[in-house]
Specification:
The complex is a heterodimer. By secondary structure, chain A is mainly α. Chain A contains 29 helices and two strands. In chain A, helix 12 packs antiparallel against helix 16. The longest helix of chain A has 75 residues. Chain B is built from three helices and no strands. The chains are: A mainly alpha, B mainly alpha.
């Protein structure tokens, strides 16, 4: 098969899988997951073959040396918008990790959804399963497949529009998957339910998406094309420099700058940057593997990917070492701020998934900040490595939760068993017992890290892989992938003399290392703090295998981007990533200059954070409060409550909107004004109609009609006697008439 | 030379006889005969007017011939109708044939 045809085919199998499952095999769980796995498997194999194929191409990505093909698709007036695929080095790298990560979630989900166990009769569709197979198992895989389709479409798209389509499909899947357990309710009304989290995510990202769509429209309006290559590569990037020279209607901002800012707004929504970050932590309400993985490793990366892809547009007019363009300024500021801001929140979270969620926001901020300061390669590099270790961490946390839930079931079962024993003398209702066991486990939070501890021995595979992921996240020196990519970003910031960004990112890196170690210590080290943790068990191979595979990449993915002049290690492996992905841009970015200060900084913050985290949290007894709570006091409360951003948005946006819709629009305008007007019109029309009927229609029109009919009837009645049927009689009448008429004729014509 | 008025008088007399027959006779066949008389009275009129007023053209004769044709056809149809009625109702009395009554 030719490479471009193969590229076209990459997103197709998951889409087919989606439709097959939804339309035909929904009832059959085994068939459904087989179809889904085969679909994503095909996509993965094809992606891998494309990746391996382009690896061998010399100077891939430069000039016209890419895989590209497109067809006219959407006729718009005289023009027609094309749909096409493009594989350049960036796409190839994305394909490699996206398809792999998707495949890993698919496999992991088989185990996570308790495949192989019988359906628990207590489980309701739309609620997390207690101990049996997920009731909506097939639907789960259908959504996953649709998600994979959206992501792969986005990656292979050769124009902004198609990318945006993939983007929105993922937005939909995100909504569907966050709200997958739609029937779940919590006793605490303030705790966000999956339903509300889904709506929140959808609405929040919508804010960004609308702005992004505006940017796309503006871009098309200005350039007449949406193709990446035509905008950014044709004639040496002529279109981009043209846009950079054009003044927009906002003073001081070029057209390229305005478009860049609008497009960046989309990323702020999708990649959960401040101030639209609020949806991502709540997205953790979805099933752990998917929601977490999608909202950590792949989908949220789409925002960063879009920015990397559009980097020449965002940086139009910028040259290395020069002043930043407005979009880059925005990215650097928002990215760096988000990185620090989210890291501080993560420090005070107790939910194992929430920590990772904030860590994701923080890491995405890193990438955005890196792009903002022009460290293009470093951003792309961190995107890849982050995808691996964050996927690993999330799947690991899912494994932990699953294990603890298992322990909890064990405990509840024991408890019910012993209760039964005690009550065996008297008549006993077993269903009641079951009920109490279930209600008991609902009050227990299997995601709270303070309920864990000591899982190292219970779940060794999860522990070791999680440890690798955690070290990669904190940037443990030399070995892990996170170190190299983070170092590249810090190095870029230092080298570009963006010292504020550098300082902020360094502090964020320190916090990252700290909360990661806090998480690892609380979860795996020390002694079990609850009975559930005591009885936690390692999960099935479908869940641990993806962990092992991902942990391999979490380490090795970093080795492809070691700077050339790094002491000792540099040069052992060529800086392949820089060379390869650098080919995406028009001009090869300059090689990273090695500098001791950023390296020293990243060493200090990573090791320092890890050490501090370990010292503080290595042995927390059961029931003890977080030591940080004492140390930070009210600040801890502030962090724990996420700076009250949810409350703030609730106050600024949600409540006014509710008031507007409920009181103003619904009660006053709709029910009062519009309905009132309509009712008035209705009543008036009715009265008018009544009047017409009673005073015009009935007496005059009907009267006249009736009069004609009645008149004719009476006339006929009185004259019918002359219709005798006797022909001679008629003749006689005729004769008389003729004579009479003749007489008249004679008289009047005389 | 017999004046035109004589012919007209004859025709009028003949017409009146025919009319009387039509109105007064009971037998449908007789009524039909009365009609023939009336038609022939008209024919006399036509021929007389032709002869006295426009002898150079043939239109008067032509009218007379057309009336003959009409009379013959009418007699044929009328008799056929009467026979048909007779077969069905066993009568030829016009008074009794009053199916078209209200």
């Amino acid at each position: 098969m030719t490479p471009d045809l193969l590229t076209w085919l990459i997103p197709v199998p998951p889409l087919l899988a989606f439709f097959l499952i939804v339309l035909f095999t929904n009832k059959d769980k085994v068939l459904s997951h087989t179809i889904a796995l085969v679909g994503i498997g095909l996509s993965w194999i094809w992606s891998l073959s494309i990746f391996l194929r382009v690896l061998g191409v010399e100077h891939f990505g430069e000039e016209e040396n890419v895989i590209a093909s497109s067809i006219p698709w959407l006729p718009v007036g005289a023009e027609s918008l094309p749909m096409g695929v493009l594989v350049d080095p960036l796409t190839a790298v994305m394909l490699f990790f996206v398809s792999l990560a998707c495949l890993m979630i698919f496999i992991y989900s088989v185990g996570y959804s308790n495949f192989g166990k019988p359906l628990d009769p207590h489980d309701q569709p739309g609620q997390p399963p207690h101990n049996g197979i997920e009731p909506l198992y097939s639907r789960f895989f259908a959504f996953l497949s649709l998600f994979a389709f959206g992501m792969l479409t986005l990656v292979v798209a050769d124009n902004v529009l198609l990318m945006f389509i993939g983007w929105e499909i993922m937005g939909l899947c995100s909504y569907l998957l966050i709200g997958f357990w739609y029937a779940r309710d919590y006793p605490d009304p303030k705790q966000i339910t999956p339903r509300r989290a889904a709506v929140k995510a959808f609405m929040t990202t919508r804010v960004g998406d609308v702005l992004m769509l505006l940017g796309i429209v503006y871009l098309y309006f200005q350039t007449g094309t949406l193709s990446f290559r035509e905008i950014m590569h044709a004639n040496g990037g002529q279109a981009v420099s043209m846009l950079a020279g054009l003044d927009s209607f906002i003073p001081g901002l070029s057209v390229a700058g305005l478009i860049g800012l609008l497009l960046f707004a989309g990323t702020v929504g999708k990649s959960a940057q401040f101030p639209l970050h609020v949806w991502l932590p709540d997205a953790m309400e979805g099933p752990t593997p998917v929601s977490a993985m999608i909202h950590a490793a792949t989908m949220v990366s789409a925002g960063v990917y879009a920015m990397v892809r559009l980097f020449p547009l965002l940086s139009a007019g910028w040259h290395h070492g020069g002043p930043l363009t407005p979009p880059m300024m925005a990215m650097a500021a928002i990215g760096a701020f988000t990185a620090l801001f989210a890291a501080t929140i993560a420090v005070a979270q107790n939910d194992v998934k929430k920590v990772l969620a904030y860590s994701t926001i923080s890491q995405l901020g890193y990438m955005i900040a890196a792009l903002g300061i022009g460290a293009y390669i470093a951003a792309a590099f961190h995107l890849v490595t982050h995808a691996f270790f964050k996927a690993l961490l999330f799947l690991g946390s899912g494994s932990v939760i699953h294990g603890v839930e298992h322990g909890q079931h064990h405990v509840a079962h024991e408890a019910s068993h012993s209760a039964k024993h005690e009550a065996s003398a008297e008549a006993h209702d077993p269903s009641h017992n079951q009920q109490s066991a279930i209600s008991n486990q609902q009050s227990f939070d299997p995601q709270n890290m303070l309920n864990m501890g000591g899982l190292r021995q219970k779940m060794p595979v999860t522990f070791w892989t999680f440890l690798i992921g955690g070290l990669a996240l904190s940037g443990f020196p030399l070995i892990t992938a996170g170190f190299w990519s983070k170092d590249a970003i810090l190095g870029g910031a230092w080298e570009g003399e963006h010292f504020i960004v550098f300082a902020v990112l360094a502090v964020a890196a320190f916090l990252t290392a700290f909360y990661t170690m806090r998480q690892i210590s609380l979860t795996f080290l020390g002694q079990p703090r609850t009975q559930a943790a005591e009885h936690a068990k390692e999960n099935v191979w479908t869940m641990t295998l993806p962990l092992v595979i991902l942990s391999f990449f979490a380490v090795t993915a970093g080795w492809v981007g070691i700077p050339e002049d790094f002491p000792v290690l540099g040069g052992l492996l060529p800086n392949w990533f820089h060379e390869f992905v650098g080919g995406t841009l028009l001009e090869h970015p300059p090689a990273e200059v090695f500098n001791l200060i950023p390296l020293a900084t990243s060493l200090v913050v990573a090791l320092g954070g890890l050490a501090l985290g370990w010292l503080v949290y290595r042995n927390i007894p059961a029931g003890a409060e977080d030591p940080l709570q004492r140390a930070l006091g009210p600040i801890h409360t502030l962090l724990k409550n996420k700076y009250y951003f949810d409350e703030l948005y609730d106050f600024i946006f949600v409540r006014p909107v509710r008031w507007l819709s409920e009181v103003f629009v619904s009660a006053w305008m709709d029910k009062g004004l519009i309905d009132g007007l309509l009712h008035w019109i209705g009543r008036t029309s009715m009265r008018l109609g009544d009047a017409f009927r009673n005073y015009f229609d009935a007496p005059i029109i009907n009267g006249a009609g009736d009069l004609v009919g009645e008149g004719v009837k009476r006339f006929g009645n009185s004259f019918r006697v002359i219709q005798t049927g006797k022909v001679q009689y008629y003749l006689l009448i005729t004769m008389v008439a003729v004579i009479a008429l003749g007489g008249v004729f004679l008289i009047f014509t005389r | 030379m017999i004046p035109l008025s004589w012919y007209l008088t004859l025709a009028a007399a003949l017409f009146c006889i025919g009319l009387y027959g039509v109105l007064a006779r009971k037998n449908a066949v007789a009524i039909l005969m009365g009609i023939e008389l009336m038609l022939n009275a008209v024919n006399i009129n036509l021929v007389a007017f032709w002869h006295y007023l426009t002898p150079t053209t043939v239109s008067g004769q032509m009218f007379a011939i057309i009336v003959f044709v009409v009379a013959a056809s009418e007699a044929a149809v009328g008799l056929a109708l009467i026979i048909s009625i007779y077969r069905r109702r066993n009568t030829v009395v016009a008074e009794e044939i009053d199916l078209m009554k209200w």
